[in-house]
Amino acid sequence: MLFHYHFWTPYVEETEKFYEDNGFRISQRIGRYQGEFQEFNPPLKWEDFREKNILFRIIEARKGTINITFGYGKRIMFDHIGFLVSDKEREKICENAVKLSWKVDKRERRTFISTPYHFRIELQTNTDVVDSLNSKINLQELKLETKKAGLESDLLTLFGTSKNRVYSEIGDVVTIKQAIINNLISSPIVDPNGVRIINE
């Protein structure tokens, strides 16, 4: 199940406000402050720490079966998309990634697959990364911009199905152009990192 995307962005506070204004719950904020990583999770608000010069590594916004994360970067940079899978599905997808000669990085909490399209794919088996598996609010589809053709056929090989709901168009940058989200209040809207969100 497609559930996730991650950006690096200079617009960290603006991105958080955008998703919060559209009904997402901020569940986590982790940033480097005075040389070490610390948590600045809600109920803390930006007024409580804005002047502290925190370098945010990750801020997590959740709604239904969707988990969107972002952290500080000097420029907007799309990093990865994520899928919730079973242990069995993960093993098969990893085998397929090896056949494609894609690098697989298995970690304790999640697995990352590096693609030749200059973004990564996260495989997540822990269902606690979303608020509800039964919600009607979900990430229906993503349209990516990539610099080379072939993504759809490679994803078919990787997942063994065309139901991964990720599509692409050729362009000058690697990013997410559009996300279709079920049961979102506003539509269409554009987040601070250029992702056009459509309610379906």
UniProtKB/TrEMBL annotation:
Q: Do you know which SUPFAM superfamilies this protein is assigned to?
A: Glyoxalase/Bleomycin resistance protein/Dihydroxybiphenyl dioxygenase (SSF54593)
Per its UniProt record, what InterPro entries does this chain match? Glyas_Bleomycin-R_OHBP_Dase (IPR029068)
Alphabetical list of Gene3D superfamilies matching this protein: 2,3-Dihydroxybiphenyl 1,2-Dioxygenase, domain 1
Report the protein name in the record: Uncharacterized protein
Give the species.
Heyndrickxia sporothermodurans
